[in-house]
Please model this.
Amino acid sequence: MRTVDIALGITRSRRARLLVALIATGTFLATPSSAADSATVVAARPEIGAADRQVPVVVEPTLLERRVLGRSVEGRDIEAFRYGTKGGTPIMVIGVIHGDEDAGLLITDVLRTMTPPTGIDLWVIPTVNPDGTVADTRGNANRVDLNRNFPRGWAPQGEPGYWQYAGPSAGSEPETKAVMKFVREVKPALGIWYHQDLNMISPGSGFEGRIRARYAKLTELPLVRITGGRYTGVAATWQRNAVPQGLGFVVELGPTLTSSQARMHAEAVMVVARMVHGSRA
Model:
């Protein structure tokens, strides 16, 4: 699959080349939030070319913590950025788990320019698969589909080279281990995981169902139940079952994501975060 940011004409392969530098330095791109820039949230992102010599610094609200959760197969940091109210309701947002589905990075970029509502302890994780993000591949450097590698419901699938290769055993990959350790420590009340490019959210039941429906309405995504396929070892499923009363769901973005859509998704994150926080009051 190949994604183009309509506002910028950035393809996945071009963005991946820039991410080599960004992940190496722990720096992702700035996204302006002033009224003058509201029509094109990421208009300040540079085109990638030989003339580019500097990587812009992220314009952030107060950063409570930058944490390295672990390292990838190839030794890249898996980073989390913490904002909002320390000790508040923990919310976790993951931009990328499949390296070639990277439009979620645009949303995490925007989130890193926003101040969370009072009472929200927001953890933004741009990518849990930095090797795949840089290489523009679904799996990690071991060619494992990380979204088939988590222990809950894990089952063998294929061999290295198969697009949904689940790895040699449940939780075998360093990226998986890092996420599991983090989730067990932070205990996110809600986790949101971005994928592409089915352009949908699967409906849920109870309070989580209302959270999913609200997010879908705010982002104009249809609520459609996924049928067919073999979904074993899924990260979001493991995460919400690893935390008492935990919530977690997948947002399937479309094949493209504009800057205005990225902001719409970031604002939806804040809305459902407030819902979760309110339910715990």
